[in-house]
Amino acid sequence: MLTEDDVPELWAYRSAYREPADFDAFWKDTLEAARDHEPRLELTPVDTDLETVDVYDAVFPGFGGHPVHGWLRLPRHRSGPLPAVVQFHGYGSGRGAPVEDLLWASAGYAHLLVDTRGQGGAWAGGGATADPVGSGPSHPGFLTRGIEDRDTYVYRRVFTDAVRAVEALRTSPHADPDRVAVTGPSQGGGIALAVAGLVPGLRAAHFQAPFLCDIRQAARLTGEQPYAELIGYLGARRDRVEQTFRTLGYFDGLAFARRATAPAWFSAGLRDEVCPPATTLAAYHRYGGPKQMRLWEFNGHDAGGPEDLVIALSAFRALLKTSSHHPHQQSRKKES
């Protein structure tokens, strides 16, 4: 486990990851195919006993036009389009119950919490989005599904769904398309980072201990889940190591970070054995926009938990609660 004494060495780390030469062409073709389906957000009111928040069952077309589910939560007392926050959840989880995750709507945002296809049966509430695409041999879990090829890899579909979530929300009369931010913890942070690199014009971003960053180094540093799935897969398929990492090169957060421009807040726990803090810092160093980093000395994968969310709330308020866009020149000073 790392301590405060290890921070200088941690800050000095730079990843050896090199993105594929056709990274941009791959994602351009992928997203153009998805855009054959109109980005509409279909909303069905959900009856709850909440008095300050309205909840809608939200559905939009993702990769292949497949239906992707989420919850859209809105402050009940509102007028006109709202600044919006699109949130992605942790590995194995789902969108949960309608009355959960009320933070962002309570703070005055249109809040779209997006399912991750095929997940939602492990913890913290169920999901409602199937993945109709099959895969070849994979280790139990999600990380290695379709990993034989970049075109069949599950996160191609997941990241495309996430981009389409922002595009669909921007068509809604409830959201101001010029005031949209993305956020998420762990897998959700990795998905948000991909969106930040693929979607222009985002106003802000928040990544808590993002998964899928500096992937090969992460697999060397930790044996914890979900990276244990990748280790187990390659332990059984020793002839697939280089091909597997060629596939993963198209999905590494470091490549998306380099293309992102929205002001961003990163966080990591020095005791995180799930997404090692060095991998979050690797993404931070590659990030193309204004950025801040918070390292939490005695925290693990929670990356500061609610205290870190307080930082994000304050940052988002400064950037999203104005109707006209003024680029924010956030300090790049590091914090620990």
TrEMBL record:
<protein>
    <submittedName>
        <fullName>Cephalosporin-C deacetylase</fullName>
    </submittedName>
</protein>
<feature type="binding site">
    <location>
        <position position="91"/>
    </location>
    <ligand>
        <name>substrate</name>
    </ligand>
</feature>
<dbReference type="InterPro" id="IPR029058">
    <property type="entry name" value="AB_hydrolase_fold"/>
</dbReference>
<dbReference type="InterPro" id="IPR008391">
    <property type="entry name" value="AXE1_dom"/>
</dbReference>
<feature type="active site" description="Nucleophile">
    <location>
        <position position="186"/>
    </location>
</feature>
<dbReference type="InterPro" id="IPR039069">
    <property type="entry name" value="CE7"/>
</dbReference>
<feature type="domain" description="Acetyl xylan esterase">
    <location>
        <begin position="9"/>
        <end position="305"/>
    </location>
</feature>
<feature type="active site" description="Charge relay system">
    <location>
        <position position="301"/>
    </location>
</feature>
<dbReference type="Pfam" id="PF05448">
    <property type="entry name" value="AXE1"/>
</dbReference>
<feature type="active site" description="Charge relay system">
    <location>
        <position position="272"/>
    </location>
</feature>
<dbReference type="GO" id="GO:0052689">
    <property type="term" value="F:carboxylic ester hydrolase activity"/>
</dbReference>
<dbReference type="GO" id="GO:0005976">
    <property type="term" value="P:polysaccharide metabolic process"/>
</dbReference>
